[in-house]
Write a structure and sequence with these properties.
478 residues; Thrombin, subunit H; Rossmann fold
Length: 478
Amino acid sequence: MAAGKSSESHAMLYTLITFVALFLIAAIAAGIYYAKAEEYRTNYDEQKKRLDEVAGREQGNLAKIVGKIADGKSALGMMELYLNQMIKAITGQESADLSAAAKVNEVAIQINKLLDELGDDQLTVAGQEGITLLGQIGFLKTRLDEERAQTQSLQAKIDELAKAMDQQQNNAQEHETNLIAEKDRYQQQANEIQKQYDELKALMEQSTEQQVQNVIATLDKTKKELADKNTAYDELAKKLQNQETALKTALAKLEAIKPRPDIEVAAFRSDAKIVRIDPQAKVVYLNVGSNDHVYRGLTFSVYDSSAPIPEDGKGKAEIEVFEVSPSVSAARILTSSLNNPIVSQDIVANLIWDSQSSNNFVVVGQFDLNNDGLADKDGNTKVRELIQRWGGKIQEVPTIETDFVILGIEPTVPIKPTAQQIESDPMAQQRYQAAEAEAKLYNQTVVQAKALSVPTFNQKRFLYLVGYDLLAAKSTPK
């Protein structure tokens, strides 16, 4: 082989050996790097896993502390927002753009400054444990409630005092008025006494002869006045006697021409007729109803249509209305006679009731409605209530407007009690005076009714004419 080619072969061999050596070195280095890289990657993964575990735990703790995190906000951002809101709730102002520590420190400075200003009251406000806002708010609310309660109590006391003062003022004014009236009365009495004194003094200053002359003059004047009155009375009595004689003569002539009308004729007019009878049910039907002002409970006496109503007012039967229609009413038969039964077209009457108007009544005396022989204590009141119940009107004394006078039993006046009887029974004199007044009213009513030609009826005639004789002893007018 030539020397040139041998040198080239050796160079190529060296190059190849060098390349292989470098390749081996590179391969070894790559293996070592790969091994280290795998080791580093394994360590990285382990560290990352540990970091993720720590971060996960902290994230959970932050979520528990912060709560729900708004979109676009981190946990720290939410905590900063809440811190600012808390500072505003405490101070009432927006917090400055400072760190959290600076903000808390600023609030603490303001609180400490306020506590320093309170001085000795600091413990009352802050308490042993320092400032607690909720506790302080509760404390202030309790104090406020106490102050309000105390204010209300004071206001109530003020109102009571004002009321008492008004009452005292009214009492004082009333007392003052009474004192003034008493003073005026005493002053009037004093004036009268002074006047009497002056008259007596003037009389005493007159001489005895003057006094006698004055008395004689007064006596003569009185005698003359009495004589004049007697003369006038005699002339008046003579004129009255002449007028009475002339009136009697005129009445006698008038009655000879036309008899005097019966003043009781209005009491004996029929009010309705019986149009139908139901003997089995003991019911009759009348030709009057609600259009004629008939109502349930109204009673009537029944009379024969072929004869006038008897003078004593006693009918053949008594009926009581129990059902009313516009033009007809039904009445139950209370009493009837087997010898003289009710028939169709019989007439009925009630002295009190009138379909067109109300009658005026005067009721005096005592009444025995239950027929026990004794005057009922409330008999007069019951008769008045019965009249008013059926549309009548009550008057106390007869007038020209009076239609009927109902006379009960004449009141008896007991013997006037002696002083000894009055001493043992203080009411004896009062009872005597009441009985005397009642008897006087009874007699005056009789005289006035006769003078005014007002019809008078005793208890029996009255009860007969209203068809209430049976019910009077059983019930009380309602």
